[in-house]
Structures are given as C-alpha cells and as structure tokens.
Design goal:
Helix content: 25-40%
Number of helices: 9
Largest sheet: 7 strands, mixed
Distance between the termini: 29 Å
Number of domains: 2
CATH architecture of the largest domain: 3-Layer(aba) Sandwich
Number of strands: 14
Structural class: alpha/beta
Bound molecules: pyridoxal-5'-phosphate
Low-confidence stretches: none
Shape: globular
Mean pLDDT: 97
Length: 356
C-alpha cells in the first residue's frame, strides 16, 4: 500500500508522474525504445530538454525576460562551488546569509575563491529563525541566500532590495509559491525536493551576468558553455530531466505556481494549527519564519516518543523523523503532498492526545 511520504528528499512526486515515468521506461513516446536507452541527441529527447527548459521559465514567470534555464548534474552541492567560480570576481568578494546547514556548505565552497562575508547568521540559535537585519556591502560580486531551510523548517518571506546580483538556493521550495523571480540573477535547485528524482539541478541564469570574473573556468563548470550547448554540453541526466518535465507539466495543468501556493498554504496552516493547538507538541522554527514546505516540531514530553512513533507508522506514514541536527519531527509537505496525507498525520497527533 502506498505510504504517506513526508520525506525531506528524495521526496514525494505526483502519483501521475510516477505512472508516466514508468511507462516511458518501458516505451517512450511509442518509439519502441525506453527513455533509458535513447540517444540524448534524438529528436524526441531534444524536444524534452527544450520543453523542460522553457517550462521552468514559464512557471516562474521568467519567460521572455532574459533568462536561461539549464538542467545540470552534481546536485545543488556542485552549485555551491560553480556559483563563486562563475560569479566571484578574481580577487573580489561575495556576501552570504547563513540560515542553515546548506547555506554553511555554500559559504565553505565560496571561501576557496575569495573573501566571503557572512552578513548575518542564526547559527547561535540552531538556525531556528531567518536573520532580517543586515547590510550587504556595496563591493561584493553577489549576495547568496537560501530561500527555504530544509533541515530547520524556516523560509525567507522577503528578499533584500539591492543592486547587488541576488543568488538563491531554492532547492526545497522551487515552484511552491508566488514571488517575483525576476529579482534574482541566479537561482538553483536540486530536483529531488520539489521537482523530480535526484540527478539533476535546475539552474536559472540572467543574461549578461557571466564572463565578468577574469578567471578561466573549466568547461564543465562554466555556465556559459552549458548555455551555448543548450544544456547538452555532455550527456544530460535523461531520466531525471524527463521526470522533472512531467512534474512541471502536472503543475502547469493544476494552475501553476499561483494555484499550488494556495494549496501549500492550506496544508501548512492545517498542520501548524494542530501543532499550536495540541498541548503535546510544539513547533521548532520561529513562528514568523515557518516554512510552508518543511514543518519541524517536537513532543513536549519525550516519553511519548515511542508510542507516537508506533502510531504514525501504523497509520502508514513514512519519513517524519527530524534531521539529526534538530531532532523531533519534520513533516515535509512539498507540492505533490496531498492534503489527505496531512490530515492523516493530524489525526494521529489528535489520537495521541486522546490516548494520553
Ligand atoms: C538538499 C539540499 C541541498 C543539497 O542538495 P544535493 O542535491 O544533495 O547536493 C542544498 N540546498 C538545499 C536548500 C537543500 O535542501
């Protein structure tokens, strides 16, 4: 029986996407060939890549606005490195906002390329909030932030207004909410949280920001090489790109980012309401910074852990254990998570209260 999958990533995808992706593994477009064995240069796959690149921009409202979309490999972690390689001026600086483990990882890589200024951090409070008061120095090549902190369950509700190019790691909330995406110069997102299977990273780059560092960049790390080869500099992750396209098509049919934002708000509000109402539980993230995607919470009394764990497992729930650095629970309720699954979890929380 299909489980209610609250895993943080790799994570749930729409059931319809699983079905179409498995069909394509057996026979892609009635070609008599599997998606796993066709040439990435075949007409059918080039069409997939072209549509995926165009649809990513369309869903974010960036179509025709001077942006390029790429589907690369190496995970969001490789972008931690590729961003400074391509954007930090030789001998220059970059500014970072440290809001969680992934932001720390990005900072660590940037330090290899030049002075990396951490404008603010919430590390001293185990990243339970998003710092809001900080200044971005005027002489940095870019400012990097993480829109959603997957591990701690916080999310940026606003982004700084600045002339400095904004770079954002949106791995765990891409396509989940309506914001002005054109405020960013570069966006990246590993597919396995809200878009597809592990194996590809969506990178969106504003025209005109590349080739200004004075640094020579190895081809495979050079965004402009990937752009000139239309995201086919080498063999792309064919299946991950195809499955991501299926998810984007699913989202478009649903009404796009506007429609999913409303659904995501409904799901998150239901769950946070129960966390706040139920005397056995408390939230982890500061209320105003709560994520719509990753809901972190704990039991007030750890003695009930065993019985609660047994109850949610019996309810066919999977993947709600918190990250080891936070403890407690984390319910990841990405785009594809049905509201019914959130209700199942809420009912288990209520049942625990009634039992005790
Ligand atoms: C999961 C995650 C990453 C790391 O992604 P990989 O694809 O495993 O490299 C980076 N940033 C955020 C915000 C994440 O949630």
């Amino acid at each position: 029986m299909k489980k209610h999958n609250f895993s943080a990533g790799p994570s749930i995808l729409p059931q319809e996407v699983f079905k179409k992706a498995s069909q394509a593994v057996l026979d892609f477009n009635n070609s008599g060939l599997s998606i796993l064995e066709i040439s990435h240069r075949s007409k059918d796959f080039v069409a997939v890549m072209d549509e995926a690149r165009a649809l990513a921009l369309e869903l974010l409202g960036l179509e025709g606005k001077g942006y390029q979309a790429l589907f690369l490999q190496g995970g969001a972690s490789l972008e931690f490195l590729r961003v400074p390689y391509n954007l930090m001026k030789e001998g220059g600086k970059a500014a970072y906002l440290e809001t969680g483990t992934w932001a720390t990882g990005a900072i660590k890589q940037a330090k290899q390329f030049g002075e990396t200024i951490v404008v603010a951090t919430s590390k001293e409070e185990n990243f339970s909030y998003v710092p809001k008061k900080y200044e971005i120095p005027s002489d940095v090549s870019y400012f990097h932030c993480t829109s959603n902190n997957t591990i701690f369950g916080t999310q940026m509700k606003e982004f700084p207004k600045t002339d400095i190019p904004l770079v954002c790691d949106m791995s765990s909330d891409i396509f989940s909410r309506k914001i002005d995406y054109s405020q960013f110069s570069l966006i990246y997102a590993g597919a396995q949280k809200n878009m597809g299977p592990a194996g590809t990273t969506l990178v969106i780059i504003k025209d005109g920001i590349l080739n200004k560092t004075g640094r020579s960049i190895p081809s495979i790390l050079d965004y402009s090489q990937h752009i000139s080869k239309e995201s086919m500099l080498n063999t792309p992750p064919v299946f991950a790109v195809y499955t991501s396209l299926l998810t984007m098509q699913w989202l478009k049919n649903l009404g796009g980012v506007d429609a999913i934002e409303k659904i995501n708000e409904t799901k998150a509000n239901l769950l946070y309401k129960e966390i706040d109402r139920n005397p056995l539980f408390k939230g982890v993230a500061k209320t105003e910074d709560r994520s719509l995607m990753n809901v972190t919470f704990t039991l007030n009394n750890p003695e009930y852990q065993e019985i609660f764990d047994k109850m949610w497992k019996e309810a066919n729930i999977s993947g709600i254990n918190g990250h080891r650095s936070v403890g407690g629970y984390r319910a990841s309720i990405y785009n594809a998570m049905p509201i019914e699954s959130v209700e199942v979890l809420i009912n288990v929380m209520k049942d625990l209260e009634n039992k005790i």
